[in-house]
Amino acid sequence: MATNQTTVTLSTEATIAFSGSDLVPISYAPLTMVGGVDQQEQLLLFRSEIDTVSGLDLSPREYRDMGQLASDWLTLDEINRTITAITIPPGTTFTRDDGSVISLPALLSGEAITVKRVNIVAEPYVTWTTGSRITADQLNLQTSHLLGLIQEVKNTADNAILRTDFDAVVNPLIEDLSAGGFVITNLAEPTNDEDAATKVYVDDLVDNTVTSQLGAANGIATLDSSGKLPASQAPGPLGLLPSSFFAQAASPTRGTVGDGLFGWGSLWFNLTNGRLYVYIPDDKFGAATEATDAEIGYWVDVSAPAQ
After folding, report:
1. CA of residue 202 relative to chain centroid, distance
2. 83-87, 129-133, 251-255: segment of lowest average pLDDT
3. Phi/psi of residue 61, each to 5°?
4. What is the pTM of this model?
5. In 3D, which of 259, 264, 262 has the Cα closest to residue 247?
């Protein structure tokens, strides 16, 4: 009795290489082929790095269809079970999801490729007729066909669950996914806006942009235990000019020396109570401006909403 059910190989990985302009033969010997059927009909080649080769951001459908090489582009040595040539017809194009048409990229040396064994599903390998003679070859071929289909169904299901094969990429999520309280592990670092992020990535981002900047020079100011901004973190004065910033314990006074002149909108940070004030016009003297003595107004506490 055959015992190869648990050792059947349905796919093998290879790397494209050239000797001059000739393809270095790619072996598909590890694959368990069905006897009595053209081997070319049983092979499917997939360019597993087609997104990198093309330099495009491909959808699942584009990735699958653009990466697949037609079986009639292959030249086989069935005795040694190798692919001796892959000929992509000149001018071969591919239609993207948006309707644009692009040229199919040429094969590159060093490009990864997946060689898969597939079974014909559109028609049976053996067709029985009434009164025909039953032979062992026919029965074995029919059994091999059925066994091969079962193997591929199992392999496809496994790949869809484990997402370890290019077939899995054509089965994206169509609804919210619940992890059922389990942890999602082994995430790659995010590169796109929609990518999931690892905990260490988020922790590092928060530390670099927030935590490490707290209380630092040119960083993020913090309040002390009484809810005031420490004097050491208060902004320094910008100069003795109208609309300047004052950081001092007493209210600035207008004059040609000392605090200098200041106009409406000037800011004063009170180092004593840790509150911020803005200089606004006095309505009583709204029309009275002095070019040499700034505007007439008074300081208003803006550290809290008006009551």
Report:
1. 15
2. 251-255
3. -65, -40
4. 0.50
5. 259
